[in-house]
Design goal:
216 residues; mainly alpha; 6 helices; 78% helix; MAP65_Ase1_PRC1; microtubule binding
């Protein structure tokens, strides 16, 4: 019986030693995780060694998951940011990628990506509308795209067109140029029509002959 009791005591002391080592390791890891996650120091409630070890281990797992979740979200936001910056020709969001982002950092990043998405949709809509008008004007003016930019606007896939601020301004400039040429042509046509009418009157051209020419 004494031998059995001694063995039980030895097992309990061995278990206590393992639990104390685990508690020390968990506390150390918790301190590291709290710093990385920018949380306050972790406080434990008074309890048995066994319960304390279980609580600390559970907290470590919870904080490790928070760390993984934040890093995964940061990676996803960076991928979205990179794709948007490529098409908008803007600078990437500034954030320290070497550390775990804070909740405020992630919130700012989310709002930044959302604003870029809104900007992309606005520019895409502006590009599509201007492109449609430019194509109609080119057809009306019998104008063939003769610069690389004009060919990109008319021929390139809409999804591949770079929606940079410079490109949008160049697009507006091209549209204004074409509208100016059409307005000039219309003014010349109006002047020529007026001269034709005046000549018809002076030459007393019959109405039937006038009507046959009017379709042109």
């Amino acid at each position: 019986l004494q031998s059995l009791l001694d063995m039980m005591v030895a097992e309990e002391e061995s278990l206590k030693e393992r639990l104390l080592k685990s508690i020390a390791l968990c506390r150390k890891e918790l301190d590291t995780l709290c710093r990385e996650l920018q949380l306050g120091p972790f406080e434990t409630e008074e309890s048995t060694i066994l319960q304390m070890e279980k609580n600390l281990r559970t907290c470590v797992e919870v904080l490790q998951k928070q760390k993984r979740d934040r890093k995964q979200e940061l990676k996803a936001l960076q991928e979205q940011d990179q794709a948007l910056c490529d098409i908008l020709c803007t600078a990437l969001f500034t954030i320290d990628t070497g550390s775990v982002p804070s909740l405020d950092d992630l919130d700012r990043y989310r709002r930044h990506v959302a604003s870029l998405n809104t900007l992309k949709e606005q520019r895409r809509e502006e590009f599509v509308n201007n492109k449609r008008q430019i194509i109609l004007l080119m057809e009306e003016l019998d104008h063939t795209p003769d610069t690389s930019f004009e060919r990109d606007v008319v021929c390139e896939d809409e999804e591949a067109f770079c929606l940079s601020e410079d490109n949008i301004m160049a697009l507006q400039s091209l549209l204004q140029q074409l509208e100016g040429r059409r307005a000039l042509n219309e003014a010349v046509c109006a002047e020529l029509r007026a001269r034709i009418l005046a000549l018809w009157e002076r030459l007393q051209i019959p109405q039937e002959q006038r009507d046959s020419s009017a379709v042109h």
